Amino acid sequence: MADTNDSDSCPGALAHAAFHAPAPVGMLTVWCSATAVVRVDFGDTAGDDSPHPPEVLRTALRELDEYFGGTRRTFTVPVAGEPADPASFRTRAQAALSEIPYGAVWTYGELAAASGSPQAARAAGTACATNPVPVIVPCHRVVPAGNPEQAVRRVGNYGGGADMKRWLIAHERSHTPSNGTDKTHPQSN
């Protein structure tokens, strides 16, 4: 485990520990404070792991393992991203990401509408791109406008790459009784 207070290692948040989490989509590096996950990075971005990660990090690793194993649909581990203005669109959009049901996808426009600014689809994309805790806060469930049912082919950008985003969407749909045909969108909430 890497102990750090270096803001370059975990921008915008005070990270105390990091741990590598091997996943079917590649290596994830999970950063935490004493009380919450503050960042998830794609790839091997930290130093050596410790055999004694803090409790919040153990919880995050267990929940990620359950998610990738198909037995977890929502995360309960506390998350605390970069400090943000609670009235900002980005903060509202990142909060709305957790409202997207497991196995479903929303368009950037639907995320914008759920965040109170229906015309802000581009800003919704920026909110997804700046999500500090991907996978745990499911920005992979947001796709470009068009037919959301074609999301596995046409996914848009993603920090871990388009193939990873396709895998995450397909993984959730394969573990959803309706085979991912849940059409729960913000307009119907």
UniProtKB/TrEMBL annotation:
Protein origin, superkingdom: Bacteria
Protein keywords: DNA damage, DNA repair, Methyltransferase, Transferase
GO molecular function ontology, one term from the record: methylated-DNA-[protein]-cysteine S-methyltransferase activity
Signal peptide boundaries: none
Pfam families referenced in this protein's UniProt entry, alphabetically: DNA_binding_1, Methyltransf_1N
Protein's GO biological process: methylation
UniProt-listed Enzyme Commission number(s): 2.1.1.63
Record field: catalytic activity: a 4-O-methyl-thymidine in DNA + L-cysteinyl-[protein] = a thymidine in DNA + S-methyl-L-cysteinyl-[protein]; a 6-O-methyl-2'-deoxyguanosine in DNA + L-cysteinyl-[protein] = S-methyl-L-cysteinyl-[protein] + a 2'-deoxyguanosine in DNA
Methylated-DNA-[protein]-cysteine S-methyltransferase DNA binding domain boundaries: 89-173
Methylguanine DNA methyltransferase ribonuclease-like domain residues: 23-79
Broad enzyme group: transferase
Entry-linked PANTHER family: METHYLATED-DNA--PROTEIN-CYSTEINE METHYLTRANSFERASE
Name under which the protein is recorded: Methylated-DNA--protein-cysteine methyltransferase, constitutive
